[in-house]
Amino acid sequence: MTWFEAIVLGVVQGLTEMLPISSSAHLRLTSALFFEEDAGASFTAVTQLGTETAVLLYFWKDIVRILVAWWKGLFDKELRGETDYRLGWYVIIGTLPIVFFGLVFQDQIRESARNLWLVSFSLIFFGLLLGLAELVGRKTRTWEDFRLKDGLILGFAQAAALIPGISRSGGTITAGLFIGLDRSVAARYSFLLAIPAVFGAGILSLGDVFDPVAEGSVPSGAQMLVATIVAFFVGLAAVHWMLKWVAKHSVFIFVWYRCILGAFVIILLETGYLSAT
Description:
Number of strands: 0
Strand content: under 5%
Number of helices: 12
Distance between the termini: 19 Å
Radius of gyration: 18 Å
Number of domains: 1
Low-confidence stretches: none
Helix content: over 70%
Largest sheet: none
């Protein structure tokens, strides 16, 4: 991997991880369009450590409050009805689907799931699904209305994003809107839910990303570090913008973008400009 490639991919990761447009799809497409080899799923997982560190910093006060309430609630039954205590359990339980499917389908995620035909159709189909959720979702439910089944539904939606093109935040926000959650609530829970899953995947992928026999181009340790740091700073700005946007606007800007990008990729595949694998 060249230094230019590492920095570009770090910027792409930081920009797209926080938006419902699929960072893994964008890293895959950027590699296919501008560089010789796919950076690979392991590179994606490790650079996500940068963006999730940005989420951790941005939501630091919320995370500490939730952890304290969860810990206290373990020993005090009177505190178990509090929203923060319940939210702590919802994040833990909601993380289980992506852990299970990520381990079971690890090889497919790294290989066949990165096919550009699948990526392009995922961008379009799940973009349209996001638009439908925006149209029919009531968007009236707040944190006080959030229940265990909601956490599980969004957890399974997050697991679907193991396929490039679906988007972790896109899947969870779509599911959240369908069950009536306010946009801001769905987006915030999406970011909180991603923290344990992404940190786990990133740490487990550290060894694979430097393995010369692994898929894709191989970065040096310094390049991997710089790409992750770049993703952190860009991601910090992106999460701030995303939360401000969904508080006042619909998600249709992302729906149109996903559909246009997916159609563009299909054209490139049909004309032979891009190879699907």
